[in-house]
Every structure is written in C-alpha cells, then in structure tokens.
Amino acid sequence: MKHFLSALDVPDVTALADSAAAFKAAPRSAETLGRGKRIGCLFLNPSLRTRLSTQVAAQQLGMEAIVFNVGAEGWALEFAEGAVMNGTTVEHVKDAAPILGQYFDILAIRTFPGLKDRAEDYSERYISQFVKYAGVPVVSLESATLHPLQSLADLLTIRETFAGGRRPKVVLSWAPHVKPLPQCVANSFAQWMTVWGGADFVVTHPEGYTLDPQYTKGASITHNQDEAFEGADYIYVKNWSSYEQYGQILSNDTDWMLTLDKLKATNNGKVMHCLPVRRNVELSDEVLDSAHSLVTQQAGNRVWAAQAVLADILKSNA
Ligand code: CP
C-alpha cells in the first residue's frame, strides 16, 4: 500500500483487519519496523482519538511521531491552482508539501470539508494536493469525504465481537445532531462494509439524507428505522448532513435518536459510534451506559487500526 486514503487503496481489507487484531494481541511485535522513520501528523481540524491513537501506534512501531496543528498554528494554506495569493492564504500547498516530504517518511493529514460546495469537497482537493506534492506516503486522518482509519477500527470491532457463525446484520442509522456534520464517517463505514462483504448491510435515514451512491452500492437502504433494526446484530449510529441538499440539516426529528426501547427489535444489538457523541441527542445515556455499547472498545481499536496501516506502508515502501 502506497497511500491510505480509502478502502480502495487496500488490497485486502480482511487481511488488514487481521493485522490490526495481531497488533492488538502483541502491540510491540514490530517495534523496530519504524526505527529511524518519522511520521508527521498534520491537523487542519480538531481531534482527540485520531491524534493520540496515531501517535501511540507510530511509537509502538519504533517511529517518531510529530504532531502539527497546522489549522490553528500554521500558515494559512492555499490549495487553488494558479491562485493570486493576495487574500488571507499565506503559503501554497505546492510549496509546503514538498518540504514536509523532506521532513517526514509518512505524512498523515486531517482535513474536513467546508460543506458549502459539494463538488469541491468530493474532489478531495486538499488531501490530493498533499499526495501530489509531498512525494511520500500519505495517510488520511479523515478527509473531506472519508475516514478510513475509523472504518478499519470499526471492522476490527465487528469481527472480534461477532460469534454468530453466520453473516451479521449491520445497520448504519442516521441520528439527529445540532450542527451540520460531514458525511465522512457514514460514507467510509458504508464503503468498508461493502468492500469487506462479510455482513448484511443496511443503511437507514430520513428522506433527504441519501449518501453518495458510490459508497452504498450493494447496501439495503430504507427510511423505516424500525424495520431496519429488526434482528440487527450491530447498530452504527451517526449523524450526517444532507448530501443531496449539500451540507444542510433537513431534519432534527428526535424519534431517530437510539434508545433502549428501539433496541428491543434487534438481536441483542451492539451499538457503535465513532465519537465524539452528543449524549441524549444522537444516543441516549441509557444506551451509551449499557452493555449494548461498544464505543470504548471501538475507540480503543483505533490504535491497532493505525498500527496495521503504518506497518503495511512501512513494509511496502521499504
Ligand atoms: N472518531 C474520531 O475520529 O475521533 P476524533 O475526532 O477525536 O479524532
């Protein structure tokens, strides 16, 4: 694997999840693999789990990890080709990225979408420009449309907790939120579920929240949440703003919040969320604090997902 921006960069997602599970069982099993190598983690946006789990993973591989909150502390970057930079941007990515490529062996980047211009966000211009100009492997720490490290941790969580001896039923359920959020986590989870192919995968959301079909191809899609939950083994709760009326909040219907009562229709369903979560808006306290919730285990698995990805890139680019 040269870069890690999406499930489509991964030759075998099951093998990568197996590698993550192996690191979970033996965290220091490759502690010299990254010796003498340095990863630069650039955050144009805030983070808790992604920032810390990636640093821990890199250190467990013997790498040095340097974090730069470029969004808050760096020069304002310009990404437009041919821009006349007489406004607020100070440095073009064409100039900054090659320098970062000299400082680091791997560059990892978080860059959220603006949620104003769908074509612009879905072009993934920001992270693509780093790929184009840095000259080193690039890892997505969540881009405008996808969050692949989260999705790999999600896949690991499902695989390590399911003991049904059959295909699990996995439901991605939209939930209300107070702010317009990107589609990244939902797009990415749908992409990983469909590429993996090991689950009966259902997406449920109110009208107007259809995701980009390139990510949900092969999934069952319904506006009927109760029907979707019937017999479900996993409910992945996530808000996203509208893709169709781009970036808009079309509904804040509190009936879509997951409660224990709704879980009665499931197969003792396990509940997932990428975090951070708005308690009693997306998910009720009673669900998050119950044995149904996998959110802490899921967030813990972010370390092993990052470690598997970095190890693969280190080996592939040795
Ligand atoms: N799930 C996730 O990416 O968490 P952070 O935004 O805290 O990194």
UniProtKB/TrEMBL annotation:
Gene3D superfamilies, alphabetized: Aspartate/ornithine carbamoyltransferase (3.40.50.1370)
Subunit structure: Homotrimer.
GO molecular function: amino acid binding; ornithine carbamoyltransferase activity
Chain sites annotated for binding carbamoyl phosphate: 47-50, 75, 110, 147-150, 274-275, 302
Involved pathway(s): Amino-acid biosynthesis; L-arginine biosynthesis
Main EC class the enzyme belongs to: transferase
Summary of the function given for this chain in its UniProt record: Catalyzes the transfer of the carbamoyl group from carbamoyl phosphate to the delta-amino group of N(2)-succinyl-L-ornithine to produce N(2)-succinyl-L-citrulline. Is essential for arginine biosynthesis.
Biological process terms in GO annotation: citrulline biosynthetic process; L-arginine biosynthetic process via ornithine
Pfam families: OTCace (PF00185), OTCace_N (PF02729)
Record domain Aspartate/ornithine carbamoyltransferase Asp/Orn-binding: where: 185-311
Enzyme Commission identifier(s): 2.1.3.11
Residues annotated as binding N(2)-succinyl-L-ornithine: 142, 177, 238, 278
Reactions catalysed according to its record: N(2)-succinyl-L-ornithine + carbamoyl phosphate = N(2)-succinyl-L-citrulline + phosphate + H(+)
Residue ranges of every copy of the Aspartate/ornithine carbamoyltransferase carbamoyl-P binding domain listed in the record: 2-160
Protein name: N-succinylornithine carbamoyltransferase
Record flagged with keyword Transferase: yes
Keyword line: Amino-acid biosynthesis, Arginine biosynthesis, Transferase
Annotated source species: Flaviaesturariibacter aridisoli
Family note: Belongs to the aspartate/ornithine carbamoyltransferase superfamily. SOTCase family.
